[in-house]
Write a structure and sequence with these properties.
This protein is about 55% helix and about 15% strand. By secondary structure, it is α+β, with helices and mostly antiparallel strands. The strands form three sheets. A five-stranded mixed sheet has the order 4-6-7-9-8, covered by helices on one side. A two-stranded antiparallel sheet has the order 1-5.
């Protein structure tokens, strides 16, 4: 009887724990879907694309303003300085002392970040406008790797081409249906995040392992992108697909890349996207996409 009572009590607590975990998972999913739908509603109903010109005009306008303020060789600047009875050198010295160029650079960086946020949100809001076609996932991944290889950050001295790419592709993969450009954007987000993480931890031998295989029972193609970066804690892993969540420092990153990627995979393609990771053991992003059954 004692053993039976002990077993029943243990079983009861396990049931309660399972119920709590299920409730938490439901709440997290509900919160995620609610956040995504708020973003979508905002972008679609307030017509930001027609009313916001920061993305296409900001760089030009800032370049013109920067030229007028700190370009000593610009004839119009010299003429204006002469008519005011001051020298350009004196103005430049004053602005350097007051750190005006540094402030301008900060404004430019923040403006570009706002433009990136607008860009990402507009791409998300256009989710219903993408054309569906048939494509080869192997070709899409290879072209994405070529695109990522052009990524070079002069400030960080970071070059994607130094990363070793290990490909493990199953042969005779089935064709897929959908917008291959959207898949390319998802892959590019994962590759860039992983590359930056490996660079920031000063990984001497950065590696991406990319695997593609079919899961025939579920009619899914499984794509894995694994890095040997710093990995992530369980708390971060649970939040990594939430809108605006980022582990990057203030002013770097929008926190939208992975959340929009998750939505593209799950909503636009009816697939699944997860991440397996532990601290100091890298991260493995797993994407499952339904393939064209008639192609098998």
């Amino acid at each position: 009887n004692v053993l039976h009572a002990s077993y029943s009590k243990s079983s009861y607590y396990e049931d309660v724990r399972d119920d709590i975990e299920e409730l938490l998972m439901f709440d997290c999913q509900y919160f995620y879907e609610f956040s995504i739908n708020v973003i979508y509603f905002f972008m679609k109903n307030f017509n930001i694309e027609k009313n916001c010109f920061i993305d296409k005009d900001f760089n030009k306008e800032f370049g013109d303003a920067n030229n007028r303020l700190i370009n000593l060789s610009l004839p119009a600047n010299k003429k204006a300085a002469d008519s005011s009875g001051v020298s350009l050198e004196a103005i430049a010295s004053y602005m350097d002392d007051r750190e005006v160029p540094r402030m301008l650079s900060t404004i430019h960086q923040l403006g570009k970040r706002v433009a990136d946020i607008v860009h990402n949100m507009l791409n998300f809001a256009r989710k219903s406008e993408h054309i569906k076609n048939t494509f080869d996932i192997e070709n899409v991944i290879n072209s994405t790797l070529k695109l990522a290889a052009t990524d070079y950050d002069l400030k960080k001295q970071f070059d994607f081409k130094i990363i070793t790419i290990i490909k493990e592709y199953e042969k005779n993969l089935p064709l897929m249906v959908g917008d291959d450009a959207m898949i390319q954007q998802v892959l590019l987000n994962i590759l860039r995040n992983g590359a930056e993480a490996m660079h920031d931890m000063k990984q001497k031998n950065p590696i991406f392992k990319i695997r593609i295989q079919t899961e025939t029972k579920q009619n899914f193609i499984r794509i894995e992108i694994e890095d040997n970066g710093p990995g992530m804690t369980e708390d971060i892993r649970k939040q990594v697909f939430e809108p605006f969540f980022t582990t990057k420092s203030a002013g770097v990153g929008t926190g939208l890349g992975l959340s929009v990627s998750f939505y593209i995979i799950t909503e636009n393609f009816g697939g699944k996207m997860t991440v397996i990771s532990n601290p100091d053991k890298g991260a493995n992003f797993v994407i499952r996409l339904p393939f064209d059954k008639t192609d098998r």
